[in-house]
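This part of the workshop introduces the protein records we will be handling. A record pairs a protein's sequence with a compact description of its fold. Backbone structure tokens are a discrete shorthand for how the chain folds in space. The question running through the whole workshop is how a given chain folds. The record below serves as our worked example for the rest of this section.
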Amino acid sequence: MEKLRYKLPTLTASTLFFGFLAYVGWQMTKGSTLGGSRGIVHFVTDALNFLSDAVGAQTAGYGVMAAAVAGAMGAAVFIWRDPMM
């Protein structure tokens, strides 16, 4: 229980991040165009829109969702097993 007390905020933050990526993938499967106005967000959305145009909206969206699920699982295992955290 003590371990969960210290690791829960980090687990929550990583879950929210990868949940957002899964949401972006879900929006891509529906064919919606992603938009970003400036900075790194603009480059990321341009790259995702290019990926969607190159391989198809559903394929790209499901790929992003699969990467989000795999990343979330990997991050959770890494956070839980890391002795320094």
Notes: The chain has one domain: 12-81.
